[in-house]
Write a structure and sequence with these properties.
The protein is an alpha+beta fold. Helices cover 41% and strands 21% of the residues.
Length: 170
């Protein structure tokens, strides 16, 4: 039996499961929040989910500016850690509200980067290797959850744009 009943629940249910999953991942990682940036099939970057408004604001700003840790991750396929957005991402820091420090890890499916999971803190911190390893492990868990959610929605992928927390794209 699959983890989620096939077609049993709609897109709003999937969006709620995603938000609860992001909250759980942030809690496990010991951070203030997490946000999810995905690449749509047509190449647009979509803010698909976040634990709170700060995460949505961070990722919406990254997409609008076409810069930031999560954008760098989807472009390079490599993790990005920023101890303080005010050093190197001044414009982003001004738009990102209370978020100061970000660790973003790539999300891969079938050897292709499909998005980035960003963990953030409201104070400046130096991310260490243990944080990176934990972030990558949690990213792999999230990919599994996203795959199951897609199956439960008939293989449609992330929740439809009108169900996303934010529908910014670039």
């Amino acid at each position: 039996m699959p983890a989620f009943p096939h077609h049993a629940y709609g897109p709003r249910w999937a969006a709620r499961v995603l938000q609860r999953t992001l909250r759980s991942l942030a809690s496990i990682c010991g951070v203030d929040g997490a946000a999810l940036l995905m690449i749509a099939p047509d190449g647009r970057r979509l803010v698909v989910g976040a634990t709170d408004d700060a995460g949505r604001r961070l990722e919406a700003a990254e997409v609008a500016l076409d810069q930031g840790p999560a954008v760098r991750v989807v472009e390079t396929g490599r993790p990005a850690a920023v101890a303080d957005l005010r050093s190197g991402y001044e414009t982003l820091a001004g738009l990102a509200g209370p978020v100061r420090s970000v660790l973003a890890v790539p999300l891969s499916s079938r050897s292709k980067v499909v998005g980035a999971l960003a963990f953030y803190r409201r104070k400046a911190v130096n991310w260490d290797n243990a944080d990176l390893v934990k972030g990558e492990r949690l990213g792999r868990i999230l990919v599994g959850v996203l795959d199951e959610l897609a199956r439960s929605q008939g293989g449609q992928g992330p929740p439809p744009r009108d169900q996303c927390d934010e529908t910014t794209h670039k």
